Amino acid sequence: MIKKRYFLFLALAFISLLVACSNDEASNGSEEAGGDSEKVELRMLWWGSQDRHDRTLEVIDLYMKENPNVTISAEFTGWDGYWEKMATQAAGGNLPDIVQMDYKYLAEYVAKDLLADLNPFVDSNALDLSDVEDTYIDGGIIDDKLYAVNIGANAHAIVVDNAMFEKAGVAPLEPGYTWEELKEKAKQLSDKLGDGVYGVHPNAGVMGFKHYLRQHGKWLYSEDGTELGYEDDQLLVDYLQITVDMLESGGAAPPDVFETAGTNVEQFPIVNEETAIVMDMHSNQIIAIESAAGRPLDLMLQPTLEGGELGHYIKPGQFLSVSESSEHKEEAAKFISFFTNSIEANEILNAERGVPIAGEVRKHLKENATDAGRKMFEYVELAQEYSREIDPPDPQGSTEIESLFENEVQDPIHYGEITPEEAAENFRTKASEILAKNK
């Protein structure tokens, strides 16, 4: 009897040992595969409006529902203060795993080794870019490494009210029109639309100058970012003279008509039918400005330069990047892949950040877009036909240079306080001092 009990005990012990070993092997296999049992906590930071916050939070919830092992903590703010917050987090070694990035800051963060190269995750297909054309990817590449994924493509544009053209009896602008044609039509519109109504809301800004430089095969900065990328100041003189000519002819609205609007599209003169054209816009702004106007408006390409090169490019409106300090880079890359390719997620996002980069998502949203949204999609497709490769990201100091351009070139030109020659000389002197710090 005792022997039977002894052998039964040994058999039970052996079975328990086999089960334990089997469980250990299953557990090890799951860990090696990064299985669902592994809990991952991520942080994500972005800027934007309340509408953007609500949409992004809903997408995060959707991802966590589909991936219950992942928790994503959201951090968000407006544009004002965003980069100060990022800089503070970077200095403290506390950057979130996923951060919304802007083209003008990309090179600076890469230079400081703050962003991860995403190419390994593209190779492993954790980040699926198989449905994305190179045009939409190139802006996030520096030195052959992918540091940022475009989450909304835009293109440089102007906004026009074609009904005002028709009212004035002026033929609408067509792709391929020149700078001289713009000046002529602006004058015709002002003459025929009556007092207090002008052809153009001008903008002798840095965005337009970059476009003008591209048409001359140049860029604002040198490749190493230590000096300006053009040698002949006559290029800036000629660009500014276009605005001066339109102001002097009456084709452009004087600054007291548009100065209070600032960058608030809802207050632009075109909203109140005080101008028929707004210069230097981004394609995704058509939705807000048409909504504010309460009537149909349209997007048009920038003027061409006769005999010049293509000036347009597809601009990444915003990026998502993974911080180099993240302990869960692969899972962060998987979320960016979901953000890029999920039709359900993009139905929630609704192209608020710009045109999605994945082909199937873009096709689906375009088919279901509002009239204004469809104009944005169609315009980006048109701009692609008139685009060439994007230039390298702006170097460190570029934000300071853009402020310099606005305060000491653009505004004084609008008010007639300085000549184009004086503005070009002053800009070169001060911009060169800023960029020399990168040597």
Automatic annotation (TrEMBL):
Could you tell me which SUPFAM superfamilies the record lists for this protein? Periplasmic binding protein-like II
Keywords annotated in UniProt: Signal
Signal sequence range? 1-20
PANTHER family of this UniProt entry? ABC TRANSPORTER SUBSTRATE-BINDING PROTEIN YESO-RELATED, ARABINOSE-BINDING PROTEIN-RELATED
Name of protein = Sugar ABC transporter substrate-binding protein
